Amino acid sequence: MPPKRKQKAKTEKQSEKDKNFLSMKEKVLEIKRNVLKAVELMLEENVSKNWFLENCSKLCKQDYADVIQERSIEHVCGYPLCDNPIVTVSCFYIVCSICLVVT
Ligand SMILES: [Zn+2]
Fold first, then answer.
1. Least buried of 21, 58, 86, 102, by fewest C-beta within 10 Å?
2. How many Cα atoms sit within 13 Å of 21 on the Cβ side?
């Protein structure tokens, strides 16, 4: 009998681990969905400054690079708060001349 009890306890423990793992996985997926939604909305015109500031923290460097790249494909300034068109697209200049800051 003792081995069965031990096995049952182990199974319950494993089941609890599985639940925690699935819960964590759901949280990660929810965060990824929120990031994707933020990226998609940054591709739209008329992004509000407040919304942009609230949602910028959700993005990592690569997410923001994707926003800039996608906007440049649409020939719009890469800075989400600026809807000016970009005339020349090169690998260095994917924001409009107004947003381009040379340091
Ligand atoms: Zn611009």
1. 102
2. 6
Alpha-carbon distances, residue 44 vs 5, 19, 20, 78, 101 (angstroms): 59, 38, 37, 11, 23
Provide, for the chain, the percentages of residues in helix, strand and coil under a 3-state DSSP scheme, each rounded to the nearest 5. 60, 0, 40
* Nearest by Cα to 71 from 54, 47, 48, 55: 47
pTM of the model: 0.71
Report the candidate in 77, 59, 55 with the shortest Cα–Cα distance to residue 68: 77
Ligand 1 centroid–CA 36 distance in Å is 22
Residue 63 CA, ligand 1 centroid: distance in Å:
18
Per-residue pLDDT tens for 42-76? 999 999 999 999 999 999 999 999 999 899 889 89
Cβ atoms of 39 and 63 closer than 8 Å: yes
Q: What is the rounded CA–CA span in Å between residue 36 and residue 103?
A: 31
Residue where the block lists tokens 């970009």:
86
